[in-house]
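Incident review: delayed structure delivery

Summary: a single-chain prediction request sat in the queue longer than the usual turnaround. Root cause was a stuck worker, restarted by the on-call engineer. No data loss occurred. The affected request and its eventual output are reproduced below so the record is complete for anyone auditing the incident later.

Affected input:
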Amino acid sequence: MTGRELASLAQEALGALEPGTEFELSDLLPPELWSGIPVGVRRSAGTAFLTTMKRSEAVSCLGRDGENHQRYRKLG
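Output delivered after worker restart:
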């Protein structure tokens, strides 16, 4: 699986979140899927997802947390 494919799966999962929910990319995917993906692919997915979300009006990019994971908030 490529980073872009992983980012697309995460985008599809956004619809299930309630407005106001804060999340990171890994929260949108099943834990067993995320943990089985090589780190380089996860980074690629994070970059692709962030690029898409910066253009989205449905999600706000909140910046990085203490573990250097990008945080997001779903908007109304």
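Verification: Residues 39-54 form the longest helix (16 residues).
Action items: add queue-age alerting; document worker restart procedure.
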